[in-house]
UniProtKB/TrEMBL annotation:
Keywords noted in UniProt: Membrane, Signal
Organism: Fictibacillus marinisediminis
Domain Penicillin-binding protein transpeptidase, chain residue ranges per copy: 355-664
Occurrences of domain Penicillin-binding protein dimerisation (ranges): 155-322
PANTHER family, per the entry: PENICILLIN-BINDING PROTEIN 3, PEPTIDOGLYCAN D,D-TRANSPEPTIDASE
Similarity section: Belongs to the transpeptidase family.
PROSITE patterns in the record: PROKAR_LIPOPROTEIN
One GO cellular component term noted in the UniProt record for this chain: plasma membrane
Signal peptide start and end residues: 1-18
Protein name from the UniProt record: Penicillin-binding transpeptidase domain-containing protein
Annotated GO biological process: cell wall organization; response to antibiotic
Species classification: Bacteria, Bacillati, Bacillota, Bacilli, Bacillales
Amino acid sequence: MKHRLGIFFIALMLMVIAGCSDGPKPEPRLKDYMKNWQSMKFDKMYSMLSDKSKKEITKDEFVKKYSAIYGGIKAQDVSIKPVIPKEEPEPDKNGNITYTYTVKMDTLAGPVQYKNKIKMKAQEKKDKKDWYIDWDYSQIFPGMAKGDKVRVQTNKAKRGEILDRNGNGLAVNGVASQVGIVPQNLPANKDASKEQLAKVLGIDKKTIDNALNASWVQPGFFVPIKTIAEEDPRLKKVAKIKGVSTQSIETRVYPYKEAASHLTGFVQPIKAEELEKLKSEGYESTDVIGRRGLEKFYEKQLRGKNGGLIRIVDSGENEKRTVAKKEAVDGKSVTLNIDMYLQSDLYNQMKKDVGTASAINPVTGEVLALVNSPGFDPNDFVLGISGSQYQKLEKDPKKPMLNRFAYTYAPGSTFKPITASIGLETNKLNPNKEVAISGKKWQKKGWDKKFVTRVSAVPSVNLEKALMYSDNIYFAQTALAIGKEDMVKGAEKFGFNEDMPFDLDFENSSLKKEDIDSEGMLADTGYGQGRVEMNILHLGLSYTPFINNGNLIAPQLVKADNSKAKVWKKNVISPETATRIRSDLVKVVGDKRGTGYKPPLKNIVLAGKTGTAELKSKIGEKGQENGYFVAFNQEQPSLLVSMMIENVQDKGGSHYVVPKVKNAFKEYMKEKPLR
């Protein structure tokens, strides 16, 4: 009988062992848990915890804690992997099995990587046996215990500044005044203070009420209402309103305001849709981003990289350990060739008008100024422009938000030196030949209603006189002699119909064969009308071959240690052609008969060309006129200015522009002749 009982007991044990070996394995469960963790499915993680663990923390607490911590540290690219040994680990005396796992993730404080231990225990639930996680707080981060907190700190990188060639700041990091209310400091008559503040700031009282009624507001909290410039005169009025206070905050400041607005652009808080696209580049919801101009173009260089600190502290806020730390890397500043003395002066010359201007060093290609008139104050956009302010800018007939220097316009007679150059290079123009022209109107035989008109009825002109008097008929005839094919080829040598080698986006200057659809259109092209269009910077650059023995100089916006010229196109014209045109351009300004003579300058010899482009949709009608003047100092050329002003038809045409450009030369040459 004993023998039979022994055999039965051994058989029973074998069945138990066999049953255990056929039961669920811990490894698949561990992998599922890690997979949920990696996917941040914290509710599913909780469902896999042991009964003992669930007594330590509720599901709501568990999910909220993980969500808050992982969200706070900006966890990305999370990788949680179990380390599976070759043989299954032996259970301890309590039946627990311990595994090792690895964690890798990117955070706002840099990469976090560690190994940790995790315990699993077998439990039977609903008549089904499985393995569950024996969880504790150290699973969040090693060394963490109940009652501990994870503290996260973002170290903001300073945005790089935009400086001119002399170190003057175009876009700098400064401070502004944030006007706000601490609710408990408001007087008994709260509405009176709110109404006063609304009136001073130019906002609705409802805006103030909405800010004060936000869910996060507490009686002792400072509630921001509006940010304004530190020098804003409204601050004195704000200081007298009961319950209202101010505090200084860091902000982007544009000291030159309208004078450089289209050049600098501005920054604004990043939008939600932008953040979604740029999260991987380290942007956060509290960051700003460049919206226009240089702020947008140099965004990557200027913005820098934020740093961060992740710490574990105990209930007394004593630091237990640092999880990760990354120093902020400030953005790099950009130093331009722009000269803000010149930029500001050109803007002041133009600010009552609508137009644009550029200035370059014609030998090195350094871009000294890019001006739009009118401009706007970029500080308004940084501080928070109101809807009414923006609508006022949008509806302004002068269109202050339009970046005119980036667009193309018909260059009028300032194009004539290019036509002359093409004629000389193709041997279709004899510069010394006197061409007899009768009257102020000319029509080629076979034309119907098409006429070319000129201002001065000179009986005969050669190239020099044609440039001095700005004779449309002479250059119309020259264009016809050159022909469409050679006219376009010649223009393309000057950089037409291609991207200008420049940092900012500009509309390309254009003169295309398909646009010259008639002889009349070709004739108009010869004197800068028809379908020829140029941006104001390229117009200035197109004169550099006359100064540099035929080479077209490339524009350089960013200051280099050694400002050597970079050639955009070599041998655009021959040195002989360059000398001839340059000599004639001196006469345009220096000769009393020249269109650029008045007012004469003392001690500065200028060469240049005036131009008036008439914009009309029908032959015979009177249209808007844009006036131009392009000029450079003839002796040791260091400055070349191109200016265009719109609507000069009742102001004397291009003669309205000439004094403005000459005034800029006087100021610039007086300050620093060779800067």
